[in-house]
Amino acid sequence: MIGGQVTLSAYTTLGLGGPVDRFIQATSEDELIDAVRAADQAGDSVLVLGGGSNLVVADAGFRGTVIHVGTRGLVVSERGGANDSGRHGSRTVAVTVAAGETWDHLVEWTVSEKLSGVECLAGIPGLAGATPIQNVGAYGQEVAETILAVRTFDRLSGKVVTLSPAQCEFGYRASMLKRAAAGEATGRYVVLDVTFGLQRPSGSGPALSTPIWYPELVKTLGVAQNDRVPLDLAREAVLELRRGKGMLLDPADPDTRSAGSFFTNPVLTAEQFADVQRKAAERYGAQFLVPHLQDETGGDARKISAAWLIEQAGFAKGYGHPARVSTKHALALTNPGGADTAALLALASQIRDTVRDIFGIELVNEPVLVGGSL
Ligand SMILES: Cc1cc2nc3c(=O)[nH]c(=O)nc-3n(C[C@H](O)[C@H](O)[C@H](O)COP(=O)(O)OP(=O)(O)OC[C@H]3O[C@@H](n4cnc5c(N)ncnc54)[C@H](O)[C@@H]3O)c2cc1C
């Protein structure tokens, strides 16, 4: 707080962001809806704030109302009707979680309850309500695979609306919910709760993960591709991998003072990929091959590693001061202490421009920028 004013640096994982005009803590769904409705009626800008782990807020702060989601609750309903045999000899359990529940706690709980489907998303910071916004994903899973419904407050109609996965139009770190923000801090739909369809083994069978296909996780677990492993093993392996990359929040580790990956991995057409390959060969020699990531984009599309592009463009791990590239992962831009948002955005712009000059690829920021731009 500054002079009684709340500053967003206390609410973002980057530890950055200036003061806000109004700050409301909403601990019930009614409070959340009422606060959003009142701000909208007053013509105020609105920022619905979760865990602040995907936000880069300007040093000048936010002119408007910040509504911090503090709703709680979990409802479990066994499905298992005639038409629902589930997957892999299991049955589907619907878990509805309030937007304000901590995501990682939910994952831990699902593993303890022998429910599979989100175990590889362990350690992602933030709240459950934000997970559909950018279709969070990691290590071969993304929430789009398990979401059955997203219940929202529609700021346009003023009604509570339940969206199906098809209506959410999930894509790679994208959704209709994120697009509907159209440059605003928060979009048309305020997420109230999310229902996940998770798998519980039938009978006394062991609780196994979904098939493990993400190469790094396959290697860490020492399994064959698409093997399934005990749920807790999958979760622990993911947490270990994340810790090694500074992608697990840890107050003692300055590399985790970030917003996660700052840029999404570019998805290129075959033609664009060939162009990058040509530019790389000109620069590094004919034998040089641009690595591409295995993913499920299908067709000719190639996803390439933004971290690789960043390092090739001369931004090694640890580059920069006072904002710096994480010493553990080139994709995370950090505030190790002493940086401000202007410095972080300047570093991000420098990286984006250099990658564009060398490879002709426009890196796109993953976090939501509030009051600033690249
Ligand atoms: C160390 C680290 C690692 C990360 N790793 C990953 C990863 O592996 N995969 C991944 O996908 N992401 C990752 N992230 C990014 C981030 O954790 C996720 O995007 C997360 O879902 C953001 O949740 P949040 O509650 O912190 O959202 P916030 O940062 O508070 O908000 C982000 C956006 O969502 C909106 N929003 C939040 N809640 C609601 C709601 N209830 N209704 C409507 N809009 C809402 C906000 O208005 C804002 O526009 C990482 C971040 C960090 C810091």
Secondary-structure blueprint:
Blueprint: E1 20-26, H1 29-41, E2 46-49, E3 55-57, E4 62-69, E5 74-78, E6 90-98, H2 103-112, E7 137-138, E8 141-142, E9 147-154, E10 159-163, H3 165-168, H4 176-179, E11 189-201, H5 215-221, H6 231-244, E12 258-261, E13 267-268, H7 270-284, E14 292-293, E15 302-304, H8 306-312, E16 324-325, E17 332-334, H9 341-359, E18 368-370
Parallel strand pairs: 1-4, 2-4, 3-18
Antiparallel strand pairs: 5-6, 6-11, 7-8, 9-10, 9-11, 12-17, 13-15, 14-15, 16-17
Name the strands of the widest sheet in spatial order. Answer: 5-6-11-9-10
Sequence stretches where pLDDT stays below 50 over 5 or more residues = none
What characteristic shape results from the CA principal axes? globular
How many DSSP E strands? 18
Q: Give a list of the ligands.
A: flavin-adenine dinucleotide
Pattern of helices and strands: EHEEEEEHEEEEHHEHHEEHEEHEEHE
Mean pLDDT across the residues is 93
Helix residue percentage: 10-25%
Proportion of beta-strand residues? 15-25%
Radius of gyration: 21 Å
- Major sheet, described briefly? 5 strands, antiparallel
Q: CA-to-CA gap between the ends? A: 27 Å
Summing up helix and strand content along with how strands pair, one would put the structural category as alpha+beta
Helical stretch count? Answer: 9
